[in-house]
Amino acid sequence: MYRFLWIFLISSICFSQTSKEKAEAFIAEKAFIRAQSEMLTLLKSNAEDKEAIELLGDAYGHQKKWDEAIEQYETLTEKEPSNANYQYKYGGALGMKALSISKLKALGIIGDVKRAFLKAAELDSNHIDARWALVELYVSLPGIIGGSNSKALKYAEELQQLSKVDGYLAKGYVYEYDDEPELAEKYYRLAIKVGGSVTCYEKLTSFYEGQNEPEKAIDNLEEGQEKLQRNAMHYQIGKVCADYNIQLDKGEKCLKAYLSHHSSKDGVPKEWAYYRLAQIYKHKKDKTEALKWIDKAIAGLPKIDVFKEEKATISKL
Fold first, then answer.
1. What is the rounded distance in angstroms from the CA atom of residue 116 to the CA atom of residue 184?
2. Distance between the two ends of the chain, CA-based, in angstroms?
């Protein structure tokens, strides 16, 4: 009898582990509905499995089913209120729901979002994501409902103690939104100096574009491409050239380099590079080449409206 129970328990554990491993693999493959189904089946026989509840919440979150994700993460915070990551995920799901509903309705849950992130930061003094969430929350909220750049900077400072790169990026973010461009640029530059990652270069590029300084954005991207040898940066250079109608020969060269070395890891589909080339040839008043490239973009991704709009513009040249 005991031997039978032991075999039964071992089998259940193995089944549970296999199901969770499958769900993790499905999530990694972006097969979120299959991950959801796998965890719902497992939870029917083991409703207290916190790892399965978390994976189910993750599957819902990836599908933007915020109410369902909130339910799972809230259950976890009730089962284990001292778990910082559960609090962080609960706050994150609530925050995403707030962004998807009317501003009036969102006001009713902002307090819960803030409490969850603050609790996560309090529970884990090394929780970087919770501090980033608080920086973004305090920057984005109006002062009348709790927004505060000084509090955002407080958590940016805490981030800097944990990771200089994150701290510098967070301070750049705060100062950018506080309309202090010199300080924002200073900290984004420090992030590049210390970290030098693609993300660091992208943040400074985005900042320059927001400041309407495309020449600086191109210089920054060229520096990053030279150091990191990332093909994706060829596309970014071409994009800036096309968007701002500057350095068109350089943009054309970079986009063609991007296409010649393109692989799935570059992130941006080739059709978007075709679109940017069409823009560049439009700026050059070369209607034939512009139509050639925009047709290639539409052939590859026929449902993208901006491609069709660009073709209509080119056709009028």
1. 28
2. 85
Distance CA 173, CA 134 (A): 12
The pLDDT tens digits for 184-221 are: 999 999 999 999 999 999 999 999 999 999 999 999 99
Task: Please answer whether residues 191 and 160 qualify as being in contact, where contact means their C-beta atoms are separated by less than 8 angstroms.
Answer: no
Q: How far is CA 274 from the centre of its chain?
A: 24
Model pLDDT, residue 140: 86
- How confident is the model at residue 12, as a pLDDT? 46
User: What is the rounded average pLDDT of the residues 243-261?
Assistant: 98
Whole-number Cα distances in Å, 142 to 136, 228, 305: 12, 38, 34
Where do we find the tokens 């970079």?
A: 254
Whether pLDDT at 85 is above 70: yes
Q: Does the pTM exceed 0.90?
A: no
**DSSP helix/strand/coil, 316:** coil
In a 13 Å sphere around the CA of 312, the CA atoms on its Cβ side amount to: 5
Residue 279 sits at the vertex; the CA angle it makes with 312 and 273, to the nearest 5 degrees, is 110
Give yes or no for a contact between 241 and 278, defined as CB atoms under 8 angstroms apart: no
Please tell me the total number of residues recorded for the chain in this structure: 317
For the chain, how big is the Rg over CA atoms in Å? 24
CA dihedral over 240, 244, 245, 246, signed as positive or negative: negative
Rounded Cα gap, residues 259 and 270, in angstroms: 6
- Report how far apart, in Å, the C-alpha atoms of 287 and of each of 140, 293, 295, 309, 314 are: 43, 10, 12, 15, 7
Distance, in Å, from the CA atom of 264 to the CA atom of 269, rounded to the nearest integer, reads 8
Q: Which domains does the chain have, with CATH numbers?
A: 33-124 (1.25.40.10)
Q: What is the pLDDT of residues 38-52, one digit of tens each?
A: 899 989 888 999 999
